[in-house]
């Protein structure tokens, strides 16, 4: 970034949140060999790729400008959100209107943009890759590993940003033995029961060093003031540039300098598709809610559990 750009950038943007950034450049090593040639974001939750749920959440929260941060071997993500003329023509010829509608759903969801993160160096680095697209606008960050049951959380975070300015993170209370898996926040209450002021952030702390049990989950609304801070943020835990470290710095700054970080306390349902067991639970849960699958699947699941218990006994 040039010195001129640094001087002209507003320290805290009063503009509305209209853009969403979705980091999707990870290698997906936990799901090898399935992710050797298929992006983990394209793994299906029943019959829809996980990444589509994330984009649908952004759109439901009125964010129709979506920037996907991708990497090598991620071209299928772009293809999924594009037209598939030959497939559409084949389905139309067959008169398969239901599948034709499902295929067309994804290409008209949002204004999709893509930029490559050539060298994956952490979430903070992925967010930096969005700088040219985002400019001086506040923006949402949605991690593809986290599926949130509805867009209410993101809508509320945008409301809090509009009310207080600064940046906003989503916080969920976790068990003490889980705090080392997340960035954890030190918090102070506000006059609103679901909103807190973030006073500290620690990336994946040991349980005894965690400032609280309130963990950051994969939703953020960031003021553009985060960009110059990220430029100056050295690699942290794991040798990566951590968004948590940059937000910690912003939490210490004055509001007029883009500072203050608020947290929205989330008590809804969240699905972590970043590990195998939770991914399987997510698929089963989503399938059991589907009218076309539930009647057949639930009796089978009951029988399966009974057989497992009988075999153990």
UniProtKB/TrEMBL annotation:
One of its GO terms (molecular function) is UTP:glucose-1-phosphate uridylyltransferase activity. It comes from Nocardiopsis aegyptia. It is an enzyme of class 2 (transferase). Keywords: Nucleotidyltransferase, Transferase. Signal peptide: none annotated. Gene3D superfamilies: Spore Coat Polysaccharide Biosynthesis Protein SpsA, Chain A. Residues 19-281 form the Nucleotidyl transferase domain. It catalyses: alpha-D-glucose 1-phosphate + UTP + H(+) = UDP-alpha-D-glucose + diphosphate. It holds the Pfam family NTP_transferase. Its EC number is 2.7.7.9. This is UTP--glucose-1-phosphate uridylyltransferase. One of its GO terms (biological process) is UDP-alpha-D-glucose metabolic process. Belongs to the UDPGP type 2 family. The keyword Transferase applies.
């Amino acid at each position: 970034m040039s010195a001129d750009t640094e001087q002209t950038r507003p320290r805290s943007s009063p503009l509305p949140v209209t853009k969403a950034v979705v980091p999707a450049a990870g290698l997906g090593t936990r799901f090898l060999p399935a992710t050797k040639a298929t992006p983990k974001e394209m793994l299906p939750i029943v019959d829809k790729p996980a990444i589509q749920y994330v984009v649908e959440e952004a759109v439901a929260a009125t964010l129709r400008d979506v920037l996907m941060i991708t990497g090598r071997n991620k071209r299928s993500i772009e293809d999924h959100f594009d037209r598939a003329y030959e497939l559409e023509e084949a389905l139309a010829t067959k008169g398969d209107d239901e599948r034709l509608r499902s295929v067309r759903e994804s290409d008209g969801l949002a204004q999709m943009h893509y930029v490559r993160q050539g060298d994956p160096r952490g979430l903070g680095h992925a967010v930096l890759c969005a700088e040219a697209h985002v400019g001086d606008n506040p923006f949402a960050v949605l991690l593809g590993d986290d599926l949130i049951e509805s867009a209410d959380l993101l809508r509320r975070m945008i409301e809090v940003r509009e009310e207080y300015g600064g940046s906003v993170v989503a916080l969920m209370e976790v068990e003490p033995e889980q705090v080392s898996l997340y960035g954890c926040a030190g918090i102070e209450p506000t006059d609103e029961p679901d909103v807190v002021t973030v006073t500290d952030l620690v990336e994946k702390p040991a349980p005894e060093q965690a400032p609280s049990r309130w963990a950051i989950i994969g939703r953020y609304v960031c003021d553009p003031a985060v960009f110059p801070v990220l430029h100056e943020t050295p690699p942290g835990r794991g040798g990566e540039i951590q968004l948590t470290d940059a937000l910690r710095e912003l939490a210490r700054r004055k509001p007029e300098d883009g500072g203050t970080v608020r947290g929205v306390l989330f008590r809804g349902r969240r699905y972590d598709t970043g590990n195998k067991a939770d991914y399987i639970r997510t698929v089963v849960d989503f399938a059991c809610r589907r009218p076309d699958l539930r009647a057949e699947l639930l009796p089978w699941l009951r029988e399966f559990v009974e057989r497992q218990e009988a075999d153990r006994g």
